[in-house]
Amino acid sequence: MQALKDTCEPFWRVSRREPCPICGKTDWCGINSRLAVCMRVKSDYPVSNGGWLHKLAPGVVKEEVYSPAGTNPAAPIATRNRVYRAFLSCLHLLPEHKKDLLRRGLSEEEIKRNGYKSVPSPAERWRLCKELKERGYDLAGVPGFYQARGRYGGHYWTFKALPGYFIPVRDSEGRIQALQVRLDQPDGTGKYRFFSTPNKTGGSSSGAPCHVVRPEELKDRRVWVTEGPLKADIASRYLGSVFIGVAGAGNWRPAVEAIQELGAREVVIAYDRDKNLKDAVRRAERELKVNLRRKGIRVFIASWNQEKGIDDALVSGCEITVKEERGV
Ligand SMILES: [Zn+2]
Fold it and tell me: Known InterPro entries for this protein (predicted)?
């Protein structure tokens, strides 16, 4: 079994739900969508560590195949929320990831409540997906998941993510609409990556939604906007205000929508301090400001003297100045 697992579609144990198609028993044997390793019935293909390989006729093991690449719309938010919650509940947070989150200024309880989890190793992926499927979760169109092709034909569900930890991205109602991964090894395109499978069978694109955080205790009626979900999680804790983390300064459109859903009348923009160096960030800030003011929303700009992001500024106790922007 072990040797086979590495070279083709994974095998799973037969069960009461799925008995061995060769001997009919409910234990010991293994199957995937095209093959069985029966431990009781011989064939011409013995397997080195026990049992015999049998080719299954197509359709013996039920499989659903989704239209390939690019044609799948994302599953509705209710489905994504249900699947992501169940998925995260199966995962753990590695000590080094927890340490990183503590270092950034979150408490143990917040780390637990916010639901950060480590990306599991490739060997565990198909098994996790199988478990979700067996528990009745539909993975079709849920960004991050997709159907892989087995070496001998057939498909199985799995997911794609680089090593790191998952950050849940919530909508204005607290539903998990997407996941972001904080990469262990940032590459040329940054430290964060959406959990997304736009060009994969059965997969879908996450888009670039914004993250809405509500604090335990609301101390400020204004809604704050910053760059990145994790930054928003941290800053919200320190200020006791609703925070929106946009997926990059330029992706402010979803934030305007969320601000309207929240019914906010006043917004504070707290983009990174490097906006003073980056034209694109400055331009994005101006566009966000103009769009909010057009909707009759008062806009304030936050500034501070040290640290790049508002989260680090708050954690290190910098003074934050908030000024209303009247001109356009
Ligand atoms: Zn069998």
Answer: DUF3854 (IPR024385), TOPRIM_DnaG/twinkle (IPR034154)
